[in-house]
Amino acid sequence: MSPNRRSFRLQPLASLNPETLNLFKKVFGHKPPHVVQAPGRLELLGNHTDYNLGLVLSLAVDKYTWMAITPRADGRIEIVSSAFAEKEMFSVSNLSKNPKAPWTDYVKGVLLELQKRGIPIRGFNAAIHSTIPLGAGLSSSAAIEVATALAIRRIRPYAFTESGSVTVPDGELPALTVRDKLEIAKICQAAENNFVGVKCGLLDQISSLFGKAFHAIEIDFQSLAVELVPMIGEISIVVCNTGVKHALVGGEYNALRTLCEAAAAKLGVKSLRRVDLDFLRANKARLSAREYDCAYHIAGENQRVISGVRALREGDFVQFGQYLFQSHESSRDHFRNSTAELDLLVGLARAHPACLGARLTGGGFGGATINLVQRSYVKSFMRAIASQYEERSGIRITPMLCQVVDGAG
Ligand code: ADP
Ligand code: MG
Known about the structure:
By secondary structure, the protein is α+β, with helices and mostly antiparallel strands. It has eleven helices and 13 strands.
């Protein structure tokens, strides 16, 4: 063997994040035995369709939350996050909310849901570090939940049978199965619904767990089937945050949800998934104008995901981008979850020659846009949008280039 070709062991990617390792070492005095990572996600197409049991295309992207963990024997839990100043300490027998450190709710919520599934929680020390901006539409909340569930799995191995019951694997920790990923996603969603108090769907958690590099994730929220759709080409994904905060716990999200549910009830169907545009037009008189508009948006989004998957499979990014623009128009005109800033960002992107598609991503009412851009022009696109947006709105933003990556592990 030549001297240059030394053999070396490949480290799992998660253990290579220096900030997480340093934080853990600084706080707990030694190197962590385990580190896991969970990526943020982007909703690529399919807006507010998840809780309507519809279709979504999402991406896991290269902004991560890492959690380093070591077990301890005294039933105490100590957690620190680089996003917050104070280390938090509590006992496994007291997983109650601490209003002074609401971020710990995400961790505690997952511990409680794991316990409900029969997975015993013992003491541990953990350090969390993240490159996912909090509250910017990339779902930092799902990432911290998924990281928690996977970190616990490292110190207390668990897996799921096809029927969803928990098993304890012997020997080396096996790779996550599709069933494991689905059950963990449900546990994390339940943590956010039941303990944190946000009525999120399963999109964020499934995306963080199922992502794959160079693939979009197609999720059917009726059957919970997850398909990976190749997304390979000379394109880049750019996220532009409006700089205007969105508050998911707030009224607008829940109000839209209620309108969608009311529309489904009046149409005599379990969810708007059952409704296509022809049926909707034929039954317009049964709905209020606002309910009709909301149902129209959801039915259109489901159709655009189906058409979008076809375009992706054909490698037709120009056509795919048109669905993104149409999706934004539908949000703006029918669902009305856009804002002037989101419309401005999409308008500027659309006018840029390298932009193939752009739309608001996530809940709406502020937050961010997702942009599909020709790869060779991505830097100039980012510069142009930032300067034009600042000129028009007075808000300075830093567009973010996102690579599509593998899911949590
Ligand atoms: P997002 O759109 O990013 O999911 P949310 O409001 O749903 O926004 O979740 C953000 C909250 O999640 C933060 O305010 C914090 O409480 C918690 N959180 C996310 N990431 C971290 C982290 N790295 N460390 C501590 N808490 C975090
Ligand atoms: Mg969230």
